[in-house]
Amino acid sequence: MSTGRSTPQPTVSVVIPARNAEATLADCLDALLAGDYPEERREVVVVDNGSTDGTAPLAGARSVRCVLEPRPGVSHARNRGVAESESEIVAFLDADCIPEPGWLGELVRPFEDPTVGAVAGRLEHAPATTAAERQAARMLGDWQSFAVNSVPPYVVTANAALRREILERVGGFDPRLTRAQDVELGFRLNALPGFRIAYSSGAVARHRHHGTQLGFLRQQLGWAYGAGLVEAKHGGRNGHASEPPRLHEVGRTARGLGLVLAARARGDGRPEHLEEAWFNLLHRIAWWTGARAGMIRGARIWPRRTGPGELASR
Fold first, then answer.
1. Angle at 122 between CA 159 and CA 119, to 5 degrees
2. Dist. CA 66–CA 47, nearest whole Å
3. Where is 45: in which H helix or E strand?
């Protein structure tokens, strides 16, 4: 009797973009290299995106390839990783993620179906120890599941894989987008005939969030800026256009924080209510600011339906 697969597992290149990732990259690589995927059918390419810390030496001390991409931006880094790799399947993992032992095998399993062009792995949250980490986990929830069920669907490339031929057909990641490259890639991928995304709940990677309020704010600003760029390039597709929050919505969130503060002063409510109200305000401010900046910048790159002056006045 025979057990196991009837056909060999596909060759996979795991591309990990890394910029000043010394604090997290070791755990990411050690977990990946300790996984149960056959070593001879897996290559790991770390793309050092101009780091100024010990990222490159840390990667060089392990059995992975480390290449330099001096042009800043994760799109440049991922595109360089794809160009440097050789396998038929390209998997993407962020340097602040820790994959479980069976991650890679579960991530590529859906490719047994020839109609699957991309696979999204499950993104869970690393244990939270700070208020910023707790809020990120609350806000994002099961964010990969949200992505694959969006309109149009996309994959969060912190934990995903695509067929090389598919990436080459759409031209890879757009380096003009400094954030939200995976969202924008989804628009182009879904324009391909017969393209299908699969979701693998067993391909688990745990994401580490920024631990400080400043880190949380910067991340939200970056995501909002990227969303504004995507709106500038693809807004109105499928009858859907996304708009950043209006100023009165920011004000309403600030008033909500005031009500929570007043309740706490009376001894009502729980500490986490105040924590969540404060971070919700930071989130609103970041998206009001960042999305508009991205849309105004995008108006200089792609044709716009709405002029920058009108956006700035909202």
1. 60
2. 6
3. strand 42-48
Helix (H, G, I), strand (E, B) or coil at 227: helix
Residue 90's CB is within 10 A of a number of other CB atoms, namely 25
Token pair recorded at residue 284: 């609103």
pLDDT tens-place string over residues 149-162: 998 899 999 999 99
CA 124 to chain centroid, in Å, comes to: 12
Domain residue ranges in the chain: 12-211, 215-312
pTM of the model: 0.88
Strand partners, 93: 159
| Contact assessment for residue 27 and residue 59, using Cβ atoms and an 8 Å cutoff | no
**CA–CA gap between residue 234 and residue 51 (Å, rounded):** 32
Cis peptide before 175 (omega within 30 of 0): no
Distance in angstroms (rounded) separating the CA atoms of residues 294 and 111: 35
Secondary element (H or E) of residue 288: helix 271-299
Q: Which CATH superfamily is domain 12-211 in?
A: Spore Coat Polysaccharide Biosynthesis Protein SpsA; Chain A (3.90.550.10)
